[in-house]
Q: What sequence folds into this?
């Protein structure tokens, strides 16, 4: 019998066709309801990497990275306040080449997007900070290394391949030991010290409490307790050594550091000015990603008053909720010299290791260039507050 669309396939051909179909189905992730293995190239925005990371790490690690203090009000506000800032794009301004390069405290940098210091990367990937720093180095991005890193600083510095590093300092009770830690970081090539001031007591993170975070490798190793000098303190709270410090600590640190010192965790113009008056080269406007005092202001909403208070006396940097190139552009327009991202590189790390960190930074870099081009800015030097307006609350 003649096949309607031509000669009927022979049995051998039919068998071959069926065989080919079976092979295709086995290789195809979408056929027969199998889910596609995600790849870095398939990631469209940084939230995509969060979803992949969530599927690849355990709940304790995901909650530790993602969570915030108490009701997570400040965590949400860090994001929501970007919506109050709107762009005033300008046109016919020759944006065929967009240049993101910048300089900061003596460093030439390819872009104003930096990796924030975050602790214990080993919780989300076995290569921890080694993979993170390689991913950051692929784009020449500045990376802050936490006092609480999973890997020793010399190993991280060796993997950085000349990419710029800063060291984030938590002080322990041993002030001489703290000084040695700073001097070692500088010897290993860290170009600045960022001293974190917003965590004088342990964090009120209920997700971690429910997950009994004390069982994490970080706690088992005792690393945080040792580094932070944690003890049972006032009102039965887990206090840290830095709870007993004041501005004199900053003056002493500036005197021996030999590199610029920045104060991380600043949320008011008063403390920004005190930081500069006590010798800091700049401040990082930060609420620790909403992980400590819940109800604290979001960072983008206080940025204008802090930039105005410091003026040309120091560099103002910022972090907290930056997930889009447009968010970064808003901070640059207000006067920040650069933006740190905390969770997104950890999402990238947990999702795909080194390649995921690089992907996150690539996405943000591309989005920033895109937003600049769409708003009429070919380089950072033309960006100022005329680019934005604030919506009424
Ligand atoms: C998992 C995690 C660990 C962190 N560890 C540190 C730390 O060791 N030292 C520090 O100064 N800040 C730490 N931070 C705060 C970040 O440096 C940064 O301020 C914050 O993540 C920025 O907000 P974002 O995550 O919304 O980008 C941590 C943040 C996260 C999410």
A:
């Amino acid at each position: 019998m003649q096949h309607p669309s031509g000669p009927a396939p022979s049995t051998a051909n039919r068998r071959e066709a069926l065989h080919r179909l079976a092979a295709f189905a086995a290789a195809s992730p979408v056929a027969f309801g199998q889910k596609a293995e995600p790849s870095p190239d398939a990631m469209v925005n940084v939230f995509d990497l969060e979803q992949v990371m969530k599927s690849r790490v355990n709940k304790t690690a995901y909650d530790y990275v993602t969570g915030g203090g108490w009701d997570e009000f400040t965590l949400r506000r860090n994001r929501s306040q970007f919506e109050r800032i709107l762009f005033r794009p300008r046109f016919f301004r020759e944006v065929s080449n967009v240049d993101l390069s910048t300089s900061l405290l003596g460093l030439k940098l390819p872009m104003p997007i930096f990796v924030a210091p975050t602790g214990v990367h080993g919780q989300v990937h076995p290569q921890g900070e080694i993979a993170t720093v390689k991913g950051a180095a692929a784009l020449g991005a500045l990376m802050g290394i936490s006092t609480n890193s999973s890997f020793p600083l010399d190993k991280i510095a060796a993997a950085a391949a000349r990419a710029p590093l800063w060291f984030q300092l938590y002080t322990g009770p041993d002030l001489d030991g703290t000084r040695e830690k700073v001097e070692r970081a500088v010897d290993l090539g860290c170009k600045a010290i960022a001293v974190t001031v917003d965590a004088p007591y342990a964090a009120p993170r209920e997700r971690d409490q429910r997950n009994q975070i004390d069982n994490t490798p970080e706690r088992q190793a005792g690393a945080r307790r040792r580094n932070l000098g944690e003890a049972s303190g006032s009102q039965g709270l887990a206090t840290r050594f830095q709870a007993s410090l004041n501005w004199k600590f900053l003056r002493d640190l500036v005197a021996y550091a030999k590199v610029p010192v920045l104060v991380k965790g600043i949320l008011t113009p008063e403390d920004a000015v005190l930081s500069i008056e006590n010798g800091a080269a700049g401040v990082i406007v930060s609420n620790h990603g909403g992980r400590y005092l819940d109800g604290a202001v979001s960072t983008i909403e206080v940025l204008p008053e802090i930039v105005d208070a410091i003026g040309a006396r120091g560099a103002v940097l910022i972090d907290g909720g930056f997930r889009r190139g447009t968010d970064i552009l808003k901070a640059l327009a207000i006067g920040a010299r650069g933006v740190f991202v905390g969770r997104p590189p950890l999402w990238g790390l947990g999702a795909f290791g080194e390649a995921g960190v690089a992907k996150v930074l690539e996405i943000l870099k591309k989005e920033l260039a895109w937003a600049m081009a769409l708003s009429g800015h070919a380089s950072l030097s033309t960006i100022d507050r005329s680019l934005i307006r604030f919506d009424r609350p």
